[in-house]
Design goal:
With 399 residues, this protein is mainly alpha-helical. Helices cover 83% and strands 0% of the residues.
Length: 399
C-alpha cells in the first residue's frame, strides 16, 4: 500500500468512524435522556462487561486479516480460505469464547449486575463473532467500502433499536434485548458480504484446512489475548471500579463524563483497521514498516490530542448541551478523563504494529518489558484519576 493510498484509506474509514461515533453518542445521549440516571448507569456498566471478549475477538480479527492479506497477495486459496473461516474455524472460536463468558459472569457477580442482563450481553457478543471474522476479511482484502460500512452500520443499528426501545419501554432489560437483535442483523449481513468475497478469481486448493495447524493459530491468539485483555481492562476498568464502590446514580454521573472523555480513544480507531493489513503487506515483501508506524502515531497524536484539548477547554458547554442539567456534576470529571485516556490510543497503535509484525514471538522479552512499562504508566495515571475523582467529589460520593 503506497503512502498516498494509506492516508486516503485512513481518511475514508476515519469518516465512517466519525459517523459511528456520532451514532454511539446519540445512543448515549438519548438513553441518558429517556432513562433515569440510575438506569443509565446500569446500562453503561452492562456495556463495560464486553471487555473480556477482546481476548478472542481482536486476535481473531487480526489473524484473519493477516492470513487473507497474505493469501490474496500470493493469489492462493481465497475461496477455500473464507469457506474454512466460516465453518471449522468459526466452531473452534466459539469454543474458545467460553473463557470470556465465564470471566464476564464472574465480573457481573462482583459488580452486582443481574444475571439476566449478563446473559443478554454474552449472547450479543457471541452473535458478533462472525462479524469479527468478516471485518478481518475486509481488512485483508483492503475492501474500503465494506470497512466503512462495518465501522458505522453496527453503531447505527444499535442506536436505532436501543433508543427506540428505551423511549417506548423505559426498560434496561428490553433495551438490551433490542441490542441483541441489532447484533444479529449486522452479523448476518456482513457475514454474507464476506462470503461473497470468495467469488474472486484466484487459485483454490481442495481443502485449505489441511495447511493450517490449529495449534499455531491458537498459539497466536493466546499470545495476543493477554495484550488486548490488558488494553480492554484499562479502557473499561474505570466504570467497573466506580460501580463496585459507588451507587448507580454516581455511576451514571461518571458514565456521562466517561462517554465523552473516551472520544480521544475512538477518534483514531480508523488507523487500527488500516495499519494491521498495511504492516502485514510490508512484512510479506520484506519492506520496512517503520514509516507507517511513525505516520500512524503522528495522525493519532493529532486526533486524540486535539480531542483532549477541546474537551478540556469546552467541558462547561459540552455537558449541559449534550446531557442536560442533571449531569452538571460530570463537568470537572470530563476534563480529567479526556487527558487521562489519550495515552491509551497511542498504546493500541503500538499493540497493532507489533502484533502485525509478529514481533512478540521474536523479541518477546523486549516487547513484554516495553508493554509492562507502558501499562504501569497508564495504570498509574488511571488510578490517580480514580482517586482524584473519589476524593474531589466525596461530598456526593458515598465512600
Amino acid at each position: 500500500m503506497s503512502k498516498d493510498n494509506f492516508v486516503k484509506t485512513v481518511f475514508f474509514v476515519f469518516f465512517a468512524t466519525i459517523l459511528a461515533n456520532l451514532f454511539n453518542y446519540l445512543f448515549n445521549l438519548l438513553t441518558a435522556f429517556f432513562l433515569t440516571v440510575d438506569d443509565y448507569g446500569l446500562i453503561t456498566i452492562c456495556f463495560s462487561l464486553l471487555f473480556p471478549f477482546s481476548i478472542v475477538s481482536t486476535p481473531v480479527q487480526n489473524w484473519v486479516s493477516s492470513e487473507v492479506s497474505r493469501q490474496f497477495i500470493l493469489k492462493n486459496n481465497i475461496k477455500q480460505l473464507i469457506k474454512f473461516l466460516f465453518s471449522k474455524f468459526l466452531g473452534y472460536i466459539y469454543l474458545l469464547s467460553l473463557i470470556p463468558c465465564i470471566i464476564t459472569l464472574i465480573i457481573s457477580y462482583y459488580v452486582r449486575i443481574p444475571i439476566s442482563y449478563s446473559i443478554i450481553i454474552i449472547s450479543s457478543t457471541l452473535a458478533l463473532i462472525p462479524f469479527t471474522i468478516s471485518v478481518g476479511v475486509f481488512q485483508g482484502r483492503k475492501n474500503t467500502k465494506q470497512l466503512m460500512l462495518a465501522s458505522f452500520l453496527p453503531a447505527f443499528l444499535k442506536c436505532f433499536f436501543c433508543v427506540m426501545t428505551a423511549y417506548l419501554t423505559k426498560s434496561v432489560f428490553i433495551t438490551l434485548i433490542a441490542l441483541f437483535f441489532s447484533c444479529i442483523i449486522h452479523a448476518v449481513y456482513f457475514s454474507y458480504e464476506a462470503i461473497k468475497e470468495k467469488e474472486i478469481n484466484t487459485v483454490a486448493s481442495d481443502d485449505i484446512s489441511d495447511i493450517y495447524e490449529y495449534k499455531e493459530i491458537f498459539n497466536y491468539i493466546i499470545k495476543s489475548a493477554f495484550i488486548y485483555l490488558c488494553y480492554s481492562f484499562l479502557q473499561y476498568q474505570d466504570s467497573l471500579f466506580i460501580k463496585y464502590y459507588c451507587s448507580l446514580y454516581e455511576t451514571g454521573i461518571y458514565s456521562s463524563a466517561a462517554v465523552i472523555g473516551k472520544t480521544v480513544i475512538y477518534l483514531p480507531s480508523a488507523l487500527v483497521l488500516i495499519l494491521f493489513p498495511a504492516v502485514t503487506e510490508k512484512n510479506i515483501f520484506e519492506r520496512s514498516s517503520l514509516p507507517l508506524l511513525i505516520k500512524s502515531l503522528g495522525l493519532n497524536l493529532l486526533l486524540s490530542g486535539g480531542g483532549a484539548i477541546i474537551l478540556f477547554l469546552f467541558a462547561n458547554q459540552i455537558i449541559p448541551v449534550l446531557f442536560g442539567e442533571k449531569y452538571l456534576e460530570a463537568i470537572d470529571m470530563m476534563k480529567v478523563l479526556g487527558i487521562t485516556f489519550m495515552p491509551l490510543s497511542m498504546i493500541i497503535i503500538l499493540f497493532t504494529f507489533f502484533l502485525a509484525k509478529k514481533s512478540l514471538a521474536v523479541y518477546g522479552l523486549y516487547y513484554l518489558q516495553l508493554l509492562f512499562n507502558l501499562l504501569v504508566h497508564i495504570i498509574y495515571i488511571l488510578r490517580l484519576c480514580n482517586l482524584f475523582l473519589l476524593f474531589s467529589y466525596r461530598e456526593y460520593l458515598d465512600v
